[in-house]
Structure formats: C-alpha cells, structure tokens
Specification:
globular; alpha+beta; 3 helices
Length: 153
C-alpha cells in the first residue's frame, strides 16, 4: 500500500482562567510529580516510557498505549523557559511508530485579579496519512487543559 505524501498545517490558541495563583499553575508544568499526575490520558491509557527534564534544552518523553488502541509517543524539547511567565517547546508525535506531526507550542502564564490566565498557542505540521489531524490535536489539548483544571482544584 502506497502512502500519499502530504503536509497540512494547523494552529490554534486556547485560553483558560484558573482561580489559583500563577505559581501554582506554573508548578503543574515545572514539577515532575505534579505534571505526571494530570498529563496524559489518565485511566484511558497504559503508561509506557516517561522522561522529564524541565530546562532549556531538556527533553520530555511520554509514551502510552490506549486500551485496545494505538501507542502514542510524545517527545518534546524545551526551547525557552522564563519562570512563571512562559514555556516554549518543539515536539513530535508518533502513532504506532509512525511520525505524525511536529509542533511548536508556547505556554503563557499571566496573573489576574482572580488567579491565572493561561494561554496555549500551537502551530503544527501534520504528515502524510495524518494530514487532517489538526482538529484532533486541538481537541486533545482541550482535554489536557481540563485535566490541568481538575488537578488545580
């Protein structure tokens, strides 16, 4: 079977207001035990390889098998970190060993009177059979931000 070679580009911006101090939201990303508790698929996946290296140039890995489904692999490199202000990463995703996308994501943390405004901006390139996956990536990121909100409660 021949795979059609294509590229698609997708981008999105998601903003959430969390009723907790900016440092608390920041720590959910910067502290490994906190990130591990909310990041990923929860009970919907069987965890696999995990690596956490929160520093500029550091790499994160999160691999998991969905129950009765595919294996997803996330590999990120931190390209910019300004404490309590922003995190910028480049990351790649694989599904069952097939490279599906490369993305740049910026995470911004802003104090508000009510707590923290968190903004996730992402630009991705999707490859070949995954060319139409941009909306799915946005939906998955929405799920991560809901999990983050539950973690912060």
């Amino acid at each position: 079977m021949t795979i059609a070679r294509r590229l698609a580009h997708a981008g999105f911006t998601l903003t959430r207001d969390y009723p907790v101090p900016r440092e608390r939201v920041w720590d959910a990303f910067a502290d490994e035990s906190q990130k591990r508790s909310w990041w990923g698929g929860g009970d919907t996946v069987e965890p696999g390889e995990w690596a956490f290296d929160f520093r500029v140039g550091g790499h994160d890995v999160d691999e998991a098998a969905f129950h009765d489904g595919p294996v997803s692999r996330y590999e990120a490199t931190y390209t910019d970190i300004v404490e309590h202000v922003r995190i910028v990463t480049t990351y790649d995703m694989w599904l069952n060993g097939v490279h599906m996308s490369t993305s740049v994501a910026s995470l911004e943390f802003e104090s508000t009177d009510e707590g923290t405004r968190f903004t996730h901006i992402e630009h991705g390139v999707f490859f070949d059979q995954f060319w139409a996956d941009g909306p799915g990536r946005e939906e998955g990121t929405r799920g991560l931000l809901e999990a983050l909100g539950a973690h912060l409660e």
